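FYI - complex with heme C, inputs then prediction.
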Amino acid sequence: MKKIALAILFAGVSLMAADGKALTTKCVACHGANFEKAALGKSGIVKGQKAAAIEASLKAYKAGTQNKAGMGNLMKGQVATMSDADIKTVAAYVAAIK
Ligand code: HEC
């Protein structure tokens, strides 16, 4: 039973991974096409960060608990409508950008 659940989970994740690019189209204006820029000259550089760190950041923005440069509310708006699964997909996609 556990194996089946895991298989479904992985199938779901790999299907959703295709949406990473679509989910990040709105991010690139501030963070750069490859997330290589400090957004609005304020954020840390997201490129090169590990998926787990990006996921934690995005979840914290959604929860309203991260505000590194005084612009946490702006990022909260960016991720407000994303599900936890969307956030995971985005984090994996961005972490894989070379
Ligand atoms: C309007 C400009 C803008 C857009 C669009 C935007 N961001 Fe941001 N982002 C910022 C700013 C400014 C910060 C710094 C927020 C703070 O004060 O903590 C930030 C911070 C971040 C951080 C934390 C970086 C660090 O300091 O380690 C991540 C991760 C991130 N954004 C990802 C995203 C993703 C993914 C999207 C698209 C869904 C997105 N951003 C869309 C401006 C933007």
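The CA atoms of residues 17 and 23 lie 10 Å apart. The two ends are 37 Å apart (CA to CA).
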